[in-house]
Design brief:
The protein is an alpha/beta fold and 227 residues long. It has a 5-stranded parallel beta sheet with strand order 2-1-3-4-5, with helices on both faces. The longest helix is centred in the C-terminal third of the chain and has 15 residues. The termini are far apart.
């Protein structure tokens, strides 16, 4: 009987300017399955350099650091090394921290009270294209968009040549559902959901789920939650 190969470990860089916190995170990750820590940075500038040299799968990024903060480091990493994903791991959950990080290209956002299992899930989620945006974060994203003015009227037909099923997937992304949750809702496989997401991203020019939420609102496909 052939034994299944174990899934490949995610190669991770940790960026945090507080030495005790950084070393603690590295120690914790070293105990978790499916994670291999390949480097640790004390600021954003060092994080960008480590990504250039090590090509990790994911950076766990603190936000408030000297020399180059986490938002700018995220922006540079996503622009210069698009194969590396960024998951924010920070003390701060306020809008002034959250939204700039997402706009810079972060695919996940955790606070430092997250448990080890939650960190592992976030790392592997971003690697599978299933960003770690909780429904609560999606709600705040829509609320922020709503502040810019009234939502446009819904289009009479799907925009950008989207099929009806791709529209369904887009709306479920905007609800905050993960790929497996979408698959269960639509009674299809997760692989099929990923195919639909790839197709709708190609047609619309979107790169991630945060952009998909903004797109759904901008096109009038969803309405912001009532205040």
């Amino acid at each position: 009987m052939t034994q299944e190969a174990e899934p490949k470990s995610a190669r991770v860089v940790v960026a945090d300017d507080q030495t005790v916190v950084r070393e603690g995170i590295v120690m914790l990750l070293g105990l978790l399955p499916g994670i291999e820590v390949v480097g640790a940075a004390g600021d954003g500038e060092e994080a960008v350099a480590l990504v250039a040299g090590l090509a990790p799968d994911v950076v766990l990024m603190d936000l408030r650091m000297p020399r180059c903060d986490g938002v700018e480091a995220t922006r540079r990493i996503r622009a210069e090394h698009p194969a590396t994903q960024v998951v924010v791991l920070t003390t701060f959950a306020d809008d002034e921290s959250l939204f700039p990080a997402l706009e810079a290209g972060a695919r996940g956002y955790l606070t430092k009270d997250a448990g080890g299992d939650e960190i592992v899930r976030a790392v592997h989620s971003v690697l599978s294209g299933d960003a770690g945006l909780s429904p609560g974060i999606q709600r705040r994203l829509l609320e922020r968009l709503a502040q810019t003015g009234p939502a446009p009227a819904a289009p009479s037909e799907p925009p950008d040549g989207l099929t009806a099923r791709e529209m369904e997937v887009l709306l479920l992304i905007a609800e905050g559902l993960s790929n497996p949750e979408i698959a269960r809702r639509l009674h299809v496989s997760t692989a099929t959901v990923k195919t639909h997401i790839n197709n709708l991203f190609t047609k619309t020019g979107l790169k991630d789920r945060a952009q998909a939420v903004r797109y759904a609102y901008a096109k009038g496909l969803v309405r912001p939650p009532a205040g």
